[in-house]
């Protein structure tokens, strides 16, 4: 046992006295010189490398070789990198790819070949990339694409071919993509001078929304104008976001380009009948309230082996459903939403694939989501009737028991005496009224009647303009006019005889 203890102490002494650089290496195993290795990331960017480093770590999942001077790629150079998911080769001097370049890269999801010198893509240049989702080929010199250049890229979602020299593109089969649910196709800033309009109209709605054709020498064709105008009115992002950059050649001269949406007078003579039939399968309009359930069926002309959906947020929906779980894709291919939310509004597109179906076998739903209107409260007649009765009872009680004026009280002789109440202007005027007397019963020119009375009135002297006021006491007896009490004014009653006569009945 003693020798084991001595051996352990000796080893500890050697470890402490050794150089730190020998115990803790500065770079991981197999990391190329001047490159940066961090876990499963390997970056050799901006090192002016003329060729790919020979030894690469097998655990690399993301490899960055951009901003170098690479001119060619060896066949099979990715064989040790079975876990590779992202490969960046942009900003190099690659002129061609060749067969077998991407062997053993079946798990690659993103391939960046932008800003190189590629002139053409052959049929087998991209073979072996079955899981590829994003392909960046913009800013090259591509002038030719093989008819099946993208065959086998069944998972491709975004394809960027902008800023190249392409004069044509096959929209009917997308150069081998076929029924692939492609979401983005960038063909901007090329040399596309002839585009088959029926093939554009037959594309699925989700691809129309991501089809970028601006900055091309498009022909000033009536059918193409009507199609682009229809897409612009529908609000498709690829057209509405770059509306000013859609131009066409008016006289087949490169310098005669005009902006399509700003010079619509150029298409005034175009017949609207040319636009009919371009959109053969318009979307189905659906109205749904927030909180309701919704189910969409993918109606196609033939049975489908596989059905996928695209949401308004450009999310590819396959079984079991969306990432947040609010949308489900059922085994029969239909789409189900258990509880509709405001963000579910927009165009849902299903794409059905099968041996008897073409790539344009789609069905579109334009879903409009709105909030439910609150229902008005029912009119309750019971409460209103009770309220009306209570108000009526209060008014009756006020009429019976409330005094007619503040300061009045009932007396034993049924007379009302108002205390501390100032005389109103009407009372002052009525105080100037003079004598009221009855007509003599023996007047020959009139019929005697106890119900007729003659009243002599004196008009008021303050602002009445000849109009008279009569004040009669409350206890006036019609059958005993002699007992009538008058409110005498400050002037004598004898002056009223000269004012005039009024007869009342």
UniProtKB/TrEMBL annotation:
Residues 1-18 form the signal peptide. This is Amphoterin-induced protein 3. Gene3D superfamilies: Immunoglobulins, Ribonuclease Inhibitor. InterPro entries: Ig-like_dom, Ig-like_dom_sf, Ig-like_fold, Ig_sub, Leu-rich_rpt, Leu-rich_rpt_typical-subtyp, LRFN, LRR_dom_sf. Keywords: Cell adhesion, Disulfide bond, Glycoprotein, Immunoglobulin domain, Leucine-rich repeat, Membrane, Repeat, Signal, Transmembrane, Transmembrane helix. Binds AMIGO1 or AMIGO2. The chain crosses the membrane at residues 382-402. It is found in: Membrane. One of its GO terms (biological process) is cell adhesion. May mediate heterophilic cell-cell interaction. May contribute to signal transduction through its intracellular domain. It comes from the Eukaryota. The keyword Amino-acid biosynthesis does not apply. Belongs to the immunoglobulin superfamily. AMIGO family. Residues 254-368 form the Ig-like domain. It is a single-pass type I membrane protein. GO terms for cellular component: membrane. It comes from Molossus molossus (Pallas' mastiff bat).
């Amino acid at each position: 046992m003693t020798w084991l203890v001595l051996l352990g102490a000796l080893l500890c002494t050697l470890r402490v006295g050794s150089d730190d650089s020998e115990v803790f290496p500065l770079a991981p195993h197999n990391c190329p010189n001047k490159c940066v290795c961090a876990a499963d990331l390997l970056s050799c960017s901006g090192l002016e490398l003329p060729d790919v480093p020979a030894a690469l770590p097998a655990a690399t999942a993301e490899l960055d070789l951009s901003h170098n001077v690479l001119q060619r790629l060896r066949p099979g150079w990715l064989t040790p990198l079975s876990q590779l998911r992202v490969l960046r080769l942009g900003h190099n001097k690659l002129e061609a790819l060749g067969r077998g370049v991407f062997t053993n890269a079946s798990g690659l999801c993103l391939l960046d070949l932008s800003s190189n010198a590629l002139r053409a893509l052959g049929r087998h240049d991209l073979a072996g990339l079955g899981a590829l989702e994003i392909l960046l080929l913009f800013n090259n010199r591509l002038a030719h694409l093989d008819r099946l250049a993208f065959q086998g890229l069944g998972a491709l979602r975004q394809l960027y071919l902008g800023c190249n020299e392409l004069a044509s593109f096959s929209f009917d089969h997308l150069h081998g993509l076929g029924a692939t649910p492609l979401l983005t196709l960038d063909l901007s800033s090329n040399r596309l001078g002839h585009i088959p309009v029926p093939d554009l109209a037959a594309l699925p709605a989700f691809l129309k929304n991501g089809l970028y054709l601006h900055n091309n020498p498009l022909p000033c064709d009536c059918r193409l104008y009507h199609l682009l105008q229809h897409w612009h009115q529908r609000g498709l992002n690829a057209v509405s976001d770059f509306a000013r950059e859609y131009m066409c050649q008016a006289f087949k001269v490169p310098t005669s380009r005009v902006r399509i949406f700003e010079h619509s007078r150029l298409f005034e003579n175009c017949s609207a009948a040319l636009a009919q039939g371009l959109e053969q399968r318009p979307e189905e309009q659906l109205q749904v309230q927030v909180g309701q359930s919704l189910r969409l069926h993918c109606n196609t002309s033939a049975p489908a082996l596989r059905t996928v959906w695209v949401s308004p947020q450009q999310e590819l929906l396959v079984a079991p459903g969306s990432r947040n779980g609010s949308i489900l894709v059922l085994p029969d291919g239909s789409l189900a939403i258990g509880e509709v939310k405001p963000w579910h509004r927009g165009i849902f597109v299903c794409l059905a694939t099968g041996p008897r179906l073409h790539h344009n076998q789609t069905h579109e739903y334009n879903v409009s989501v709105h909030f439910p209107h609150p229902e008005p409260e029912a009119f309750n007649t019971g409460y209103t009737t009770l309220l009306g009765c209570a108000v009526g009872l209060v008014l009756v009680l006020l009429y019976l028991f409330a005094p007619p004026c503040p300061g009045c009280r009932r007396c034993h002789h049924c007379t009302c005496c108002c205390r501390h109440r100032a005389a109103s202007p009407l009372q002052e005027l009525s105080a100037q009224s003079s004598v009221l007397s009855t007509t003599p019963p023996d007047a020959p020119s009139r019929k005697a009647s106890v119900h007729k009375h003659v009243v002599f009135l004196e008009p008021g002297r303050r602002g009445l303009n000849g109009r008279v006021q009569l004040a009669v006491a409350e206890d006036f007896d019609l059958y005993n006019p002699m007992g009538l009490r008058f409110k005498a004014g400050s002037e004598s009653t004898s002056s009223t005889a000269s004012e005039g006569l009024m007869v009342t009945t």
